[in-house]
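Entry 14: structure prediction run for Peptidyl-prolyl cis-trans isomerase. Input pasted below.
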Amino acid sequence: MKKTLYLLALLVLLGTTAFAQKKSKKDYLVTIATPQGTIRLVLFEDTPKHRENFLKLVKQKFYDGTTFHRVIKDFMIQGGDPNSKDSDPSNDGAGGPEATIPAEILPHHQHIYGALAAARMGDQMNPKRESSGSQFYLVENHEGVPFLNGQYTVYGQVIDGLSVIDKIAELPKDYRDRPTQDIKMTVTAKKLSKKKITKLYGYRYE
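Run finished. Output tokens:
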């Protein structure tokens, strides 16, 4: 009797594990609308803390009205700071939620063209390399920026609108690398089947 109960418990455990490991057939398509055009991206499932935080902020409309406040051609464009909503450009880059996100730095997520990564404080103040609660950047260099691999959490990938990143990076800017015109964004997320995302944008899930 005890042996039978043990086997039943083991089968239930294995079934639960298999169910937990089963990947979802749907995903969120994130859309960033800007005056220069629309950027669409997906968030990686194996960086769950960053994914959950980003989607939470999108749902709260946190990013709406924020700007890409730091752009460097052949490098990246950075945004997501709530300070960029006000009329004082000097505080852009210094804001965001007080809580940071634990690093989810994975070797197979690299800084390729269009990668979405989390901004953070430097190693001296932030030895655990925890991410900003809201600020992010999109890699604009077409060859990628491999020297950042292993140092910042990459948690998504642009799958449509790469040329929009280039347009933003080419805009006139001041000595702080802030565009001289506000590049405001509106960010939304819609759940679609992975098959549809692949059909529409050519992105293939592993």
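Notes: Residues 1-21 have pLDDT under 50 and may be disordered. Will compare against the previous run tomorrow.
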